[in-house]
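Fold it.
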Amino acid sequence: MDFLDPDLQAYAEAHTSPESDLLRQLNRETHLHVLKPRMLSGHLQGRTLAMFSRMLRPRRVLEIGTYTGYSALCLAEGLTEDGVLHTIDVNDELEDMVRGYVEKAGFSQKIIQHLGQAADIIPTLQETWDLVFIDADKKNNGLYFDLVIDRVRQGGFILADNVLWSGKVVEKFRPKLDKDTQQVLDFNQKIQEDPRVENVLLPIRDGILVVRKK
């Protein structure tokens, strides 16, 4: 994932609003005690997600892939007064940790946790989404997109994470074309060719694909 120049990354973070003390604590605890801490959105991406949410002022947000809850807390920052964020994850070992930070952030009435397979849970959520963040198992990105696109309001947004896949979407950055990389390539192309949306790929951290429903 660290394929961007580290000095440029450091400069970008130095000129980005800082994390809150609570997010900094969650960041640190994730790196100290949780497997695969690189999955955390972190400072720069977290502030990007919060900025999107504050600009859009969404009433209903869906997050696919909770992990330790960092991105959910960031996305919840811009919710309307009656706004709710639904977040889905399959890992029950992190459920209590996430709930604890949600409570500390004062978002207990704003963030609803769902535990289980996203493909099973998404169809049960009878909501119209203003904003969707896809950050789970990459092989199912296309499936998740298909499950939510008809429930996203016109003018609503879908954000997909890890679409640069540590740079391996570009041939010179990969030793060979593996299955995981091909799945990311296929998803990116699927979005590019979908006439229902317009999109821009931002080279932030591991790449965020911003998709707007026409």
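The chain has a mean pLDDT of 95.
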